[in-house]
Amino acid sequence: KSANPQWREQFDFHYFSDRKDMLDIEVWRKDNKKHEELLGTCQVDITALPTKQTNCLELPLEKHPGSLLMLVTVAPCTGVSISDLCVCPLGDPGERQQISQRYSIRNSFQDMKDIGFLQVKVLKAVDLLAADFAGKSDPFCVLELGNDSLQTHTVYKNLNPEWNKVFTFPIKDIHDVLEVTVFDEDGDKPPDFLGKVAIPLLSV
Q: Torsion angle of alpha carbons 191, 192, 197, 199, nearest 10°?
């Protein structure tokens, strides 16, 4: 019930240079659980923003009244990576020794925000649900930690896909839960849910 809402929420997105450079934003109005109405859209050209500083943007909503006020910071992405299994980051013994020293008890108070890294090797899935009429699925896997999200490529027409990807996340909260979800790619339609597992970091 507000025409001037304040959300004051922060979201982190991993911006890789080989992805599209536009940040798409939609503002929606929700009457109840079933009825939603689009109040406007806007875009931010990430490549046009200066890096390593907070940019205050007032964005007019396209074809609708109103504007969106937001702060956008483009900063170098540290610790986050997607790689193949054969070139696994943190796999080098010398690198592992450096990390052990970095997070030793002696250095634990140097940077209170630097908790550590989580590395996840997504190998394969077995006996997935068939989502297509042909008895197959087009599965891909999404990993979410806090509000960080990374995903594998899609393996088409396969119920036993092998991704063999390595994902590295910086940990921001030791109480976070790693959520791994498998979806079926469905063209322009929203992907179909094939299964999910949740792993609390404190259980690792």
A: 20
